[in-house]
Amino acid sequence: MAGRGTRDGGRVLLEVKGLRVAVLGNEILKGVDLAIRDGEVHAIMGPNGSGKSTLAQVLAGHPAYTVVAGTVKYDGKDLLGMKPEERARAGVFLAFQYPVEIRGITNSYFLRSALNALRRERGEPELDPIDFLQVLEEKVKAIGWDDSMMNRPVNEGFSGGEKKRNEILQLAVLEPRMAILDETDSGLDIDALKTVAHAVNQLRRPDRAFLIVTHYQRLLNHIRPDVVHVLADGRIVKTGGPELALELEAKGYDWLRDGVMVS
Amino acid sequence: MAHVEQLVGSYRAWASNGAAQAPAWLKDLREGGIARFHDLGFPNMKQEAWRFTNVAPIAEGSFALARPPARIPKLEEIQPFLLLEAGYRLVFVDGFFQPALSTPFFDDVQSLAHVVAHRPDLVREHLGKYAATQDRPFSALNTAFVHEGAFVHVPARATVEYPVQLLFLVTSGKPVVMHPRNLVLVDREARVSIVETYAALDDGVYWTNAVTEIVVGDGARVDYHRVQREGARAYHVATTQSHQGRDSTLNLHFVAFGGTLARHDIGAVLAGPGGTLILNGLYLLAGQQHADHHTTIDHAADHCESHEYFNGVLDERSRGVFTGRIIVRPGAQKTDSKQTNNNLLLSTDAHADSQPQLEIYADDVKCTHGSTVGPLDPRALFYVRSRGVGEHEAKRLLTYGFAAEILGRMEVAPLRAQLDAIVRGRLAEQ
Question: Are the C-beta atoms of residues B241 and B298 closer than 8 Å to each other?
């Protein structure tokens, strides 16, 4: 199903086949197929309730979902058999739609714990607070931000925009190979959206793929995807290049739904 | 009631012998205390304020009045309980003041017994004026045995540079009772930070029955920290009562780690307009530990602010009780009061009771309260794991956060580090 715009020859990093997922006995994903190659940026668009966020959370290993059928291979390994922390250590990162508040733990302490968990996995020495601050400063500068959020408890009292920025900051520090952004644009005003998009663009690399889940096309004005998929009623109903996003913006989702029913 | 009689008898013996030298006003205070205790007896669970806490192990136990320690510990033995070399320090062993281990300051940071002899008027003016005894049997009993404890006086506009450390250590090894009585007087616009610690070098059964009165003058600022890390089989009953003047700031921090049964009555009166009060507390319990915090914030004046944060972390079969009473008196307009009590249950056998009690008699006020009781938030657990942190470590991190949230509000860095190490040690055992 390699859609238009994929760079042929790149290795497939993430391969989803026939994925069916239920929550509380209710089937939400009804057979999803998807292949993302190293360095590609894929967007998944779709109306509310189409299963976009479910897909993002299942890939990260959220325990509330039951995989009914299908496989997901990541870097040749069975992703669905891995615990959430194992996925993270293997390079999968989910930027949450609703980042969770963690009382009493500062952002910098949290992020250092996470980075050290990844470093242990890679056989690298753990960073002490001072070394970590250096790494952090570098990463933060690279995306043009400051580290003013680092000494506050994780997401506690953060504005909606700050929470989303914090997710991208974590992405920058943890350096995943497969970054999944779950409605990172929701709740952002246009300035905040541009800031986040700019940071994501700075983080694009040939060895880092992105899966961007979004309801609106506007984020894709700033982050240009290689491939756009449309998810409706638990299935990918259309795949195309960046122009598909514009078409959706103009026409809405209904024409695709009708199309599904006709075919 | 046999035990009440035994305690009264032990009081009579003490009053006619060891305590016979006291001035008449102090004898009167003691007599009033023992009479009140005799009338009240021990509380029982039919009483509203004692619904969740059974003091039978104390009431039915047999505790002799503590005697001077046979051996005085060396400085290095008490080092783990101290924070800084610098600053004033009062050390009590089995309830008795230890000059050799202490660094007092004239008649201002001294043993209460010394100040009663040297500045009787100052003590007489305040002692027993704040901590209620009429319906408080333990406080009444403490008042009957008023003799020894810490006295801290900060004169007007003075600032004490280093935290004052008050250390109460138990070494007895025998089932004894101690009634430490502390009086803290901070005059107008003065500033001081105090750390009061209860600990043991012995894991025997004993009973601490402490009362601390804190008077904060107009425009003064006091940071008061109380660390209860009593021995594993200890009973700890305490009253801390503060009284604040106009535009004063009082930050009260409480940490309870120790004892098998602990009850702490905390009372704070905002007596002058513009006062600010923080009540910040943590109880970290495991095994069969039971800790009951009964707090009363009394907004008696207008334009005062109070913020109360209590977190409980309860493992195994432990039980935490929190009562947060807030009284807003008629005329205490523009009161701003916020209370939260969050309880984390780490085991299905752990239990927490949380009860806010708001009594508001003024109409232009802002009062909010909230409490939670439950296990770790599964969403938070997934969030942390999704960043690469293993499940066990993620649980520990979230649990640590519950404690760190409270410790983070304390401004004395060496104290924070000391408590942080205790918390980490406790979590590492899980």
Answer: no
